[in-house]
Design goal:
The protein has 360 residues and is an alpha+beta fold. The chain has one domain: HIT family, subunit A, CATH 3.30.428. 24% of the residues lie in helices and 24% in strands. The protein contains six helices and 17 strands. The strands form four sheets. It has a ten-stranded antiparallel beta sheet with strand order 3-4-7-9-8-15-16-14-13-12, sandwiched between helices. A three-stranded mixed beta sheet has the order 1-2-17. Helix 1 (126-146) packs across helix 4 (272-293). It is globular, with a radius of gyration of 21 Å. The two termini are 39 Å apart. The structure holds zinc ion (ZN) (3 copies). One zinc ion is lined by residues 187, 303, 321, 323.
């Protein structure tokens, strides 16, 4: 066995086994980039920025604003460069032998998260974050109701150039699509299989484990203790209704997931009280990431039950969550070629660092 502070093992993602991760913490493998501090635009107002207050005429008209008065703090507009367009055409799947194409039907909108240009999520107030999460929920619901061809509404945020954010003003995006994305589908299908066998939601099981479980692994032959796993060590932050967990098989060094503690399949089911606690756990988790990473650049995205007739019956087995993936290294040829992500910080070490960093 390797000495205590190095781990080198392939961990199987319990929800999507095909997404395995090589955890390799030998110091020589640490990418240098991890220690770099990310440069960030922290200005409050930028005269030439189309998303700043006073420049509303530089974007398409608002679909919604919060609060609903002139001095908005959240504003939703159409994306000027949509990935998917509202072409109002028939949604059809065209087959050419083995290759299938589908019309790029859908909607792509931008949520200007805050009127303050360069404010980070961890600097937004809990009230503001609850309002923002409520805006996500309301807009998702409106989009699902607007067209029954829409199967999935993806809400995500890119923050920082390393995470692909092309406009520095803080914003999130909503893409409504006619198909369920493959990674969500993998989660939905695999968690249903687990449910059919175990009669229990796998996400709830992982939360229960994180909160209570301590495991000891014995050597099969000698009976000696090979390793003790204190599963509670994966908890990063705990609220009344939400928990932030470092996944055991994290693809990214500082990846953290936030889930409702009580089973809930669809984000649209979240109540105002849920969103208040979610906002608090999100803010504290982002504060921790920022404190440890010194200016985190990240992607976060919501995974929620698809509104897809093929997945009726997955309400008991699927559990919505927010995945936060800070970008600290660039995928290598090995990772892209093998599909096996390499994580150079052990998830238990990362969780301990995030949990112990002082944020108040
Ligand atoms: Zn701006
Ligand atoms: Zn559950
Ligand atoms: Zn997910």
């Amino acid at each position: 066995m390797a000495d205590n502070d190095t781990v080198r093992e392939i961990r199987i993602n319990p929800i999507v086994p095909a997404e395995s991760v090589l955890i390799a913490t030998a110091r020589g493998m640490r990418p240098k980039k991890e220690e770099d501090r990310a440069p960030r635009d922290t200005r409050e107002h930028v005269e030439t920025c189309p998303f700043c207050r006073g420049n509303e005429d530089k974007t398409p008209p608002a679909i919604a604003t919060y609060p609903e008065v002139d001095d908005w703090s959240i504003r939703i507009v159409e994306n000027l460069y949509p990935v998917l367009g509202d072409d109002r055409q028939q949604n059809s799947v065209l087959s050419f032998g083995l290759q299938q194409t589908m019309d790029g039907y859908g909607r792509h909108e931008v949520i200007i998260d805050n009127d303050k240009h360069g404010i980070a999520v961890h600097d937004m107030s809990e009230d503001h974050l609850a309002l923002l999460l409520g805006a996500y929920r309301t807009r998702m619901e409106e989009l699902y109701n607007s067209d029954d061809r829409l199967r999935y509404v993806l809400v995500f945020k890119n923050f920082g150039p390393a995470a692909g954010a092309s406009i520095p003003h803080t914003h999130s995006q909503i893409i409504a699509m006619p198909v369920t994305p493959q990674n969500v589908l993998d989660e939905v299908v695999n968690s249903k299989q687990f449910y059919d066998k175990q009669h229990h939601c796998i996400f709830c099981s992982l939360i229960d484990e994180a909160l209570t479980f301590e495991a000891t692994i014995y050597d099969k032959n000698s009976g000696e203790v090979r390793r003790k796993i204190n599963v509670g060590q994966f908890v990063v932050e705990r609220g009344e209704r939400f928990i932030a967990i470092k996944p055991f098989a994290s693809r990214y060094e500082w990846e953290v997931h936030i889930l409702p503690v009580q089973h809930q399949a669809d984000f649209l089911g979240a109540t105002e009280e849920d969103l208040e606690d979610f906002a608090r756990v999100l803010k504290r988790t982002m504060q921790r990431l920022d404190a440890v990473l010194g200016g985190a650049q990240y992607n976060f995205f919501l995974h929620s039950l698809p509104h897809d007739p093929d997945h009726v019956g997955c309400e008991a087995s699927y559990h919505w969550h927010l995945e936060i993936c800070p970008r600290t290294s660039i995928p290598t040829g090995f990772e892209l070629g093998s599909g096996l992500f390499v994580n150079t910080v052990s998830p238990e070490e990362a969780a301990a660092e995030l949990r112990n960093v002082s944020i108040d």
